[in-house]
């Protein structure tokens, strides 16, 4: 019996996105695998990129709000010696230079200068909206686009290897950064700082918050599990919430109050947290204001 016949279990699934498909394309595939249209994703990946994409099923789509702001990690390859219109390998070249004389020390120093809290200009071919229209749509329509810098935090850029290919230099890096950071922009800006141009040739997301490749499954594996009637490996709502934020366990009386959207007495927990019942099911996400804990999102509403 397939997942569609069993009915989808609400929760989060960590998908290892393949190259050459959009994040929306992954959602379309997951709708067929899970047998429901109520599927969404958190944290868009470009078609060229692979790796961790969090997919929510059923009422777990409400949890995606709390996924979008999580820190992320990437493995990437930067090619120095060529600039492209998209700042990655999918765009047409706009300039080419001989990067063979660029020293390893200059590359490492250039990347080090981009760590910390910085103002980064997003790639022109990005999902940033300008007057209600995506920047990438304007660029593809032949329009010149200028985007304002955004404050991001790049916690670390580790250089794994520097490889020289004729006039090009390929730099393999691991990047840990805040949400909203464009890895393509790091490649572009490093090339500009070294005066040889640069673009991204490979990108793999290895982590979103507490969700990593170690728990990810390919679309092919998920389809095979569904066809065999096996569990998809969905993280339950409670388990998913526990990876996203602190938790609190409610008494039976508190669980009933929450089902009606009522506040609870504060528990002294700072920031946003999840409330679970005794069985580990997610009841609500709350924040505290003085002596009162107010529900922000209720998942177990009264019938």
UniProtKB/TrEMBL annotation:
Enzyme class: isomerase
GO terms (BP aspect): mRNA pseudouridine synthesis; tRNA pseudouridine synthesis
EC number, UniProt record: 5.4.99.25
Residue ranges constituting the Pseudouridine synthase II N-terminal domain according to the UniProt record: 31-183
Classification via InterPro entries: PsdUridine_synth_cat_dom_sf, PsdUridine_synth_N, PUA-like_sf, PUA_sf, tRNA_psdUridine_synth_fam2_C, tRNA_psdUridine_synth_TruB, TruB_C
GO molecular function (one): tRNA pseudouridine(55) synthase activity
Domain tRNA pseudouridylate synthase B C-terminal residue range list: 184-224
Record field: catalytic activity: uridine(55) in tRNA = pseudouridine(55) in tRNA
Protein function: Responsible for synthesis of pseudouridine from uracil-55 in the psi GC loop of transfer RNAs.
Family the entry assigns: Belongs to the pseudouridine synthase TruB family. Type 1 subfamily.
The name this protein goes by in its record: tRNA pseudouridine synthase B
Organism encoding this protein: Glycomyces artemisiae
Gene: truB
């Amino acid at each position: 019996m397939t997942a569609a016949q069993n009915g989808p279990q609400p929760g989060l699934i960590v998908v290892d996105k393949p190259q050459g498909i959009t994040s929306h394309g992954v959602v379309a595939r997951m709708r067929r695998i899970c047998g429901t249209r109520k599927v969404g994703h958190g944290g868009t990946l470009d078609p060229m990129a692979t790796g961790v994409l969090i997919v929510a099923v059923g009422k777990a789509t409400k949890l995606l709000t709390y996924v979008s702001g999580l820190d992320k990690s990437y493995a990437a390859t930067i090619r120095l010696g060529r600039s492209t219109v998209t700042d990655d390998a999918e765009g047409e070249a706009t300039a080419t230079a001989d990067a063979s004389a660029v020293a390893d020390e200059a590359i490492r120093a250039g990347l080090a200068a981009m760590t910390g809290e910085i103002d980064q200009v997003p790639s022109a071919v990005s999902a940033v909206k300008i007057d209600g229209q995506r920047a990438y749509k304007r660029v593809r329509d032949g329009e010149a686009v200028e985007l304002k810098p955004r404050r991001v935090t790049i916690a670390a850029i580790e250089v794994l290897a520097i490889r020289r290919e004729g006039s090009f230099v390929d730099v393999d890096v691991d990047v840990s950064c805040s949400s909203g950071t464009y890895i393509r922009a790091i490649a572009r800006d490093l090339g500009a700082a070294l005066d040889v141009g640069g673009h991204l040739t490979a990108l793999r997301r290895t982590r979103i918050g507490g969700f990593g490749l170690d728990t990810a499954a390919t679309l092919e594996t998920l389809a095979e599990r569904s066809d065999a009637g096996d569990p998809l490996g969905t993280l339950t709502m409670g388990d998913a919430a526990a990876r996203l934020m602190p938790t609190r366990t409610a008494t039976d009386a508190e669980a009933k109050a929450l089902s009606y959207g009522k506040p609870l007495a504060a528990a002294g927990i700072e920031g946003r947290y999840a409330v679970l019942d005794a069985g580990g099911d997610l009841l609500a996400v709350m924040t505290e204001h003085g002596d009162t804990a107010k529900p922000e999102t209720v998942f177990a509403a009264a019938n």
